[in-house]
Amino acid sequence: MSAPPAAVAPPVVSPPRAASAPLLEVEGLTKHFPIRRGLFARVSGWVRAVDGVSFSIRPGETLALVGESGSGKTTTGRCILRLLEPTSGSVRFDGTDLLGLAPREMRRMRRQIQVVFQDPYGSLNPRMRVGTIVREPLDIHRIGKNRAERDAMVARLLERVGLDPGMVRRYPHEFSGGQRQRIGVARALALRPRLIVADEPVSALDVSVQAQVINLLIDLQQELGIAYLFIAHDLALVERIADRVAVMYLGKLVELAPVEEIFKNPLHPYTKALLQAIPVPDPTRARERTVIRGEIPSPAAPPPGCRFHTRCPVVVETCRRVEPPLVEVAPGHWAACHLVPGPAGDAAPSSRRGAASG
Ligand SMILES: Nc1ncnc2c1ncn2[C@@H]1O[C@H](COP(=O)(O)OP(=O)(O)O)[C@@H](O)[C@H]1O
Ligand code: SF4
Ligand SMILES: [Mg+2]
Predict the structure, then answer these.
(1) Mutate to test the pocket of ligand 2, among 268, 270, 296, 308 (most ligand atoms within 8 A of CB)
(2) In this structure, which of 92, 104, 146, 354 has its CB flanked by the most CB atoms within 10 Å?
(3) 300-326 pLDDT per residue, tens
C-alpha cells in the first residue's frame, strides 16, 4: 500500500514523531444504535449508522468527510471524540488508543482534540457571555496563573478569529451567524488542539460568510499546524480546504483520494453524482446534471451487496449480491465499486483491500 501524496505541510508545533506518522488512525469504526420498541423497550433492530470505517489524518492535514445527510458523518466524528461510544473498531490519536482511556485520561486528551459544531447558536450557551464561553475550557483545564491571565488569552483568541476583544461581555444572540461560528472556533482553539473535528461548520451560514470562515480555518491551520476532520454534505465546500476527501454513503466509505483526484478523476458512481449535483454558476457551461435518484435508504435496513445499488445509474447484477470492498485502485486512491478497474486494469481486485490509510 503506497502512501497518499503529502498534505500541504504547514509548520507543525513540536511534532511528536516522524512527520509521516498519522496523528489520527481510525480502523473499522462501527456504531450501531439499538431500535427499541414496545412497553419494555425491547431491542427490535439496529441502526447501522457507521459500519467499518477506516481512515487516517496526518498532522496539519485536512481530511474532508463528505456525504448526504444520514450517511453517518456526525456519528463518525462523535465516536472519535468519544461523545459516543463506538460499537467496535479502534481510534488512535498520536499512537494512543482513545477507546481504552479512562474518563479522566480522556479529559486530558480532549485538550488536543476539539470540536466545532454546525449550529453556532445551539452550541453556545445563550446565557453565558462570550468571554466566559471562550474562557471556559481554560478554566476547566486550569490554564494560566489566574483569571486575569486567562482573560488576556481570551482577548487574544477573539482577536485572532477576527472579533473585537471588547465584545467579551456580550451574549451569543448579539452576534451574526458568522461571528458566532468565529466564537465557536475561538473556544475550540483555546487549548491549542492538534486536531479539530469540524462538523459542518459553515453549512448553516450564508454563502458569502461561508468563504470567510473557511479562509479563517485555512489561515489557522497554516499558522498553528492543526489537523482537521472537516465534515460537509456538499463537496463544493471542501474543494479549497481539503487535502484529501473521504466520501461516505450509508455508514461506509465508498471513495477516498487526494482532493484534486476526487474533482478531476472521481471513480465511484456516488462521488460522480455528488459532483454533478454541484450547481455551475455559469448557465452556458451548465453540465449535465444527474440528480441522484431517490432517497438515501434507512441504515436500519441497508440494501444487500453494494449499499448504493438501489440508486446507482450503472448497477449490474453482482452489485445486488456482493459487497464491493474498498480497494486502492491507484496510489492513494481508494474506491469500493465492482466496476472500477484496479491497478492492473481488472475490476476491483481483492488483493489490495485494506484500510484507507494516509
Ligand atoms: N442517537 C441515535 N439513535 C438512533 N439513530 C441515530 C442516532 N444518531 C444518529 N442516528 C441515525 O444514524 C444515521 C446517521 O446519522 P448521522 O451520523 O447524523 O449522519 P450525517 O451526519 O451524515 O447526516 C441516521 O440514520 C440517523 O438517523
Ligand atoms: S458496485 Fe455496482 S451498484 Fe455499487 S456503485 Fe459500483 S456499479 Fe454501482
Ligand atoms: Mg451530521
Answers:
(1) 308
(2) 92
(3) 999 999 999 999 999 999 999 999 999
Which one-letter amino acid corresponds to residue 42?
Answer: R
Length of the chain as a residue count: 358
CA distances from 354 to 2, 52, 350 (A): 12, 11, 9
Pocket of ligand 1 (CB under 6 A): 33, 47, 49, 67, 69-75, 299
Q: What is the pLDDT of residues 26-85, one digit of tens each?
A: 999 999 999 998 888 899 999 999 999 999 999 999 999 999 999 999 999 999 999 999
Residue type, 338: H
What letter does residue 347 receive in the DSSP assignment?
B
Task: Note the pTM of the prediction, 2 decimals.
Answer: 0.89
**Residue ranges of E strands in the chain:** 24-37, 42-57, 62-66, 88-93, 96-97, 113-116, 195-199, 227-232, 244-249, 252-258, 327-330, 333-335
How far is Cα 24 from Cα 72, in angstroms, rounded to an integer?
18
Percent of the chain with pLDDT over 70: 87
Q: Is the CB of 250 under 6 A from ligand 2?
A: no
Place of cell 480522556: 106
pLDDT at position 347, please? 63
